[in-house]
Design brief:
The chain is of the alpha+beta class. The chain has nine helices and nine strands. Helix 2 packs across helix 3.
């Protein structure tokens, strides 16, 4: 929306991208990136951009549909993440921002319960149980007895164990660093995602069975399938299926 509005207002003024770039003392490529929304418009630049296009920052950001509405411009101090959480509602965005500024955790939880999608809850609101984190397995027979592992994590779902994803083969479903919670089961239907032990190495993939082994396929098409032949391993074991995951977002 922001890019479309910048482009439409620029054309309304009869300007090309070079004209707007010169007015703001930026490069033409910067204007192009704004218009295709390949990069964010820095807040200090937002006011200058709006002034050049004869509109308000609130209109450019989609907080209002009125190009002459300057009442919502105080949202410039509210983060884009909060604007998205409030679905663009200026009053709700300010309420969330005030709660965060006041460090009012209970008020924050109340608002997140109402502003986030119904399937998303603060992790502190979820049921937790301690499950073993399978960070490694002994050579040969995989070990997943909690007493042998000694490392536990809090699971927000009913699970038997957890594993940390390493690599990119399951992107975009699971990212490197995600903690996936596992319900143990010895077998899965064709094509299901499962955690599989290949000797002492655990992997998470879609499982397809063959007479001579397993074909393990990730969601990232750039990564080739793993052809796990029974004769090449001492142990090939389906450990279980994912029932949930948590992710730490990196900024």
């Amino acid at each position: 929306m922001r890019g479309d509005r910048i482009k439409a207002l620029r054309k309304k003024l009869g300007w090309n991208q070079i004209d707007l770039a010169q007015a703001l003392d930026v490069s033409r490529s910067t204007v192009s990136m704004w218009e295709i929304e390949a990069s964010d418009t820095p807040r200090p630049m937002l006011e200058s951009l709006a002034a050049a296009l004869q509109t308000s920052p609130a209109y450019l950001m989609g907080w209002t549909d009125d190009p002459t509405d300057y009442e919502n411009d105080d949202l410039a101090d509210v983060s884009p993440e909060i604007i998205r959480m409030a679905n663009g509602d200026a009053r709700e965005a300010r309420r969330i921002q005030r709660a965060m500024d006041d460090s009012s955790r209970e008020e924050w939880y109340k608002m997140t319960d109402s502003t986030l999608p119904p399937n998303v809850k603060p992790i502190s609101k979820l049921h937790r149980q301690r499950v073993p984190l399978i960070g490694s397995a002994a050579a040969g027979e995989p070990i997943y007895d909690p007493e042998d592992l000694g490392v536990y994590v809090d699971s927000p779902v009913e699970a038997d164990a957890a594993i940390t994803v390493r690599g990119v083969s399951m992107e975009p479903t699971y990212l490197d660093g995600d903690v996936v919670y596992i319900k143990c089961c010895p077998d899965v239907d064709e094509g299901m995602v499962a955690v599989v032990f290949l000797d002492d190495e655990a992997t998470i993939k879609h499982v397809y069975k063959r007479p001579t082994g397993l074909t393990l396929i990730g969601d990232n098409r750039a990564c080739p399938p793993v052809m796990a032949e029974f004769e090449d391993y001492n142990v090939i074991r389906i450990f279980g299926v994912p029932v949930g995951y948590t992710r730490i977002y990196k900024h």
